[in-house]
Amino acid sequence: MAVASPSSTASEITCCGKPLESVALMSFPTPDQIKLQNTAMRDSLLALAKNAIVSFQDAVDPDEANNAENALLKQWKQFRVAVNRVDFTLTSPNSLGR
After folding, report:
1. Which of 3, 23, 80, 90 could bridge to 49 as Cys pair (CB 3.0-4.6 Å)?
2. Does 20 have pLDDT greater than 70?
3. Do residues 73 and 56 make contact, with C-beta atoms less than 8 angstroms apart?
4. CA 95, 97, 93 angle in degrees (round to 5)?
5. Domain boundaries in the chain?
6. Average pLDDT over every residue of 6-28
7. Taking residues 43-51, what's their average pLDDT?
8. 3-state DSSP call for residue 18?
């Protein structure tokens, strides 16, 4: 937390015990960086779902899956559909609904 008084100069203001000038400014990702991060997250989630689906499908195909495996296969497929429906091109919560 920055500490300042009305008469403080920039060199007198501290943050975490350090002069404000020595505290690195927070940088925010660019829209392109956000899209890359979003795409990487989507790809990671889809890979996770694919691996789970393949495992459960292997039990379902030869009709050897139990009720729990059938239910999990359905849930993983629903998850994959939900991930595919997310608009990962959005770069800001403010762009929702536009």
Report:
1. 80
2. no
3. yes
4. 35
5. 27-93
6. 64
7. 97
8. strand
Which residue is listed with tokens 């990671």?
Answer: 44
Counted residue by residue, the chain has a size of 98
Structure tokens at 97: 């609904």
Q: What tokens does 23 get?
A: 């505290």
SS3 59: helix
Encoded amino acid at 33, one letter: Q
Residue with tokens 């009709």: 63
Within 1-98, where are the H helices?
Answer: 31-60, 67-85
* Alpha-carbon separation of residue 58 from 19, 27, 53, 55 (angstroms): 61, 46, 8, 5
Give me the amino acid identity at 58. Answer: D
Distance of alpha carbon 68 from alpha carbon 54, whole angstroms: 15
pTM: 0.66
